Amino acid sequence: MKKVLLVELSVFERMTPLASGYLQAYATTDPVVRDAYRFERYTTVAKASRAETARDLLRAEADVYGFSCYVWNMGLVRSLIKILREARPDAHIILGGPQVMSQGLRYLDSADERTVICNGEGEITFTHYLRALTENSPRLDEVGGLSFYRDGDLVTTEKQARIKDLDEVPSPFLTGVFDSAYSIAILETNRGCPYHCGFCFWGAATNDRVHRFDEERVREEIAWTARNEILFLFIADANWGMLARDVDISRHITDCALEHGAPNVVYFSAAKNKPHAVTEITSIFQNANLIASQPVSLQTLEPKSLDLIARSNIKLSAFAEIQEDLREKQISSYIELIWPLPGETLESFKRGIGTLCENEAQTVIAYPHLLLNNTPIFHSAEKMGIVSRAAGGGAAEAEVVIGTKEVSVPEFVDGMYYFYAFHALHNTRSLRAVSRYLVKQRGMRYEDIFAAFAAYLREQGEDDPVFAYAAESIRDADYYDVNNYGYYIHSVLHEHRETFTRHVRDFARGQEWWADRKVRALFEIDLLNRPYMYSNTPMDVRAEDLQELRLLREGPRSHTVRVPAEHLAELADAVQLQGMPADGVFTVEHKRLQYPFMPTQSRDHSGSYCHGMIEKVGNVMPFWFPADAGRPAGAPSGEKGIHAHAAL
Questions:
Q1: H or E element that contains 8
Q2: DSSP letters of 411-426?
Q3: What share of the chain in percent tops pLDDT 90?
Q4: Which terminal Cβ of the chain has fewer Cβ within 10 Å, N or C?
Q5: pTM above 0.85, yes or no
Q6: In 3D, which of 182, 290, 367 has the Cα closest to residue 616?
Q7: Could you give the CA distance from residue 409 to residue 391 in angstroms, rounded to a whole number?
């Protein structure tokens, strides 16, 4: 019996290898394949040691190696194939996944006839491929959906039709393919996407059609993950909430969590044009404490860009409704943008972020534009003036866009500095009360405030750690790393908090609006209100920092302050208060849902943690409550008085 090793090199550890599970479950329904092969799976993270991974694959001594290929692991996959081919010239290798499909000229070697590519959905093609290999002279040209070399020529067979009845693919959860040794489960309830967004492969690959798995099967899979105490559930559908049944399935997830204690966290990509279903689902998960923040994937607000990337059929009004519903239900959310997209300009990018701030956006993240293989933008790159560069290091094979017909490379760099400045200033609430006042009462624009801070940071030079991190990230394309923005938050709110506080203070004092006494008072409110990412970051507000407000007492993670009556209206506008004391004396309690910083934790851990916390920043923002009214649930006790001479 021959051995098949299915290889998945993931972003996260202990995640169910769903693609491999489907391939094995479907292939073993074929009696010839079932009798001829035994299956094993190998999973590790793409950042694992290349030498150790290669050693593990060679030790497996498989006859057939199957690789799931994505942008984050393709660099590693290519090096592993080279090592395998040199050591195991007779082994068969099949590559599948969005990075390689329809890219035979790029990824196949004309001298290697034993490596093939699966173009499209994998279950049927993979099974027919294995069946063909049982013959003495495999007739791969009769297997639909393959690319391979024969006698120096690239052969691509007829496309394999998509599976319409997805229940033909047995569940790897319910058929014993998967065991319980996972922390993250990927759940797929349907396949396909009705949209053709230019930057995304999903809709382009599936031709609009959405096929569903049987609902009862989905419910049983959810129950299986809960019984096996898998803590994180990732719903891999393109548009969760698009189907009416998604609401009921969401309730089933919460019922399973209540019964079994798992999952603890649910993540999903929200349906684009179903705002009320999305907010209902988010409420269901929020009430069960399974989700703390909901992403709203706008990508851009520029109409020309929306048209160019074929996203104009997704109504901006739907996103506005989602945002309003989430705000009314007091559910945290964050906006996802992509920079730069075709049709976007530097000015429209800045203006879009300003518009989001005007509309009460809590957190906004501008992700890099990855030029993914096989997407509409990939095929129109020259026409759209796409300029890209490699990113991600050895394991990944990412191309990040750094220029378009509308955005020059220097303008792209300016936009990145603008976002890092915005990320540090707005997403951390470091100048929230001040900026709201300047916009509402003095007619300024948010984008001008952030642009001025970006210019200030760029004047600090490479020796400054706050500027240096942004500069290095832009120069080396480190922003591709999913943890990069999070580690910047770690830097400005923990590691270099004192330096960043000085920057914000010096920046504000250098602006003409600093002469406004109201601004100075609101700056002190922002100073007190700025969150801490960790429960053990030293508190950094002292009595001498306050001139308009008065610091009365300090607790382990709190300050008790008096806010003059003339500033209470602006305080209430900028900060969520737990009540309004008649004497203006508040306790500002910073102990919320933070974890302590551990010096032994890795940089990636810190970046991932802080990125997650800033996405749901409401969970770490301090409580402001009347000092004489007692603390809200979850706020700790314990204070120490400040000596009279220290209070202003």
A1: strand 2-10
A2: HHHHHHHHHHHHHHHT
A3: 78
A4: N
A5: yes
A6: 290
A7: 16
